[in-house]
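Practice problem. Given the sequence and the SMILES for zinc ion, write out the predicted structure.
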Amino acid sequence: MCETKNHALIVLDSCRYDSFMDANTPNMDEFGDTHRVWSQGLFTLPAHIAFFTGRLPTDPLSELPYVSNNRRPFVLNNLGYKFKIGADLIVDGEDVIDGFNNLGYTTIGSGGVNWFDGSPATQKLIHNFKKFDFFGPFNIDKQLEWIIENLNKQDKIFLFVNIGVTHYPYVSPFRSSDDLKNRGERKFQIEAVEYVDKTIRPLLGLIRDWKVVITSDHGECFGEDGLYGHGLYHEKVMEVFIKYHGMEGVS
Ligand SMILES: [Zn+2]
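Answer key:
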C-alpha cells in the first residue's frame, strides 16, 4: 500500500465496458482488475459533475470497497446525505477540485471532448482547476506531453484526464474521420482503446505510486435496439468499466 497523497482520475470518454474488455490493454491492466460498473450519467456533463463530487461509477451488488458504493477515493463533504460514505479523503469546497485546492493540492486537468473546450457553458466543469488545457479528441499525444510537463516538480497533485479518442468518431492515427460513416462501430472504439493504452504508457509510469482511477463517463450504443450514441437511456450507455490502483482491498 503506497503512502502517496497524489490522486489521478483518468476518463476514457464514451468507452463501453465490453469495448475495454475486448481491447488489448497491457499498460492499463497493470493498474488493477477491470470492474463492470454503472455510470452516474447518460452523457459527459452529468457524469463529470458527478465525478467532481466524488461519485464514481459503482456496482451496488459488489462486495469490494470502492467498486461498491461504500467507499470512495475522494468525496465532497456536505453533499446533503444523511448517511456517511467512507472515503480516503473528504474535501470541502464547491467541487472536489476546489476541495483539493483548499488542501494545498495542485489541480491539473486536461480535456479531450468538447465539454472541456473552455466555452462559457463548460466553465462549470473546469473553472476550479489551477491548470487546465483543452486538446480536442485528436491530439492525445500533445495532451499527454502537456500533462507530463506539468507534473514536473509538483507535489500533492490532483490530476484529471479526459481522453477524447474513445469518443465518436474514434479518430486515431490509424483511422481518419473519412473512414467512418454517420455512425460508429464498436471495433473502431476497441482500436481507439488500444491506441490510448500505448500512448498513455509514459504517464502511467510517472503515477505508479499514486492513487489512480481509470474509468469511463458513460458508454455508447452501437445499434442495440436500434439505438446509436449516448445521451439516451440504455444498458450499454450505463455500463462502463473502472480500475482502482493504489487503494486497499481492491485490485
Ligand atoms: Zn462523455
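Check your answer against the key. Residues 29 and 243 are 8 Å apart (CA to CA).
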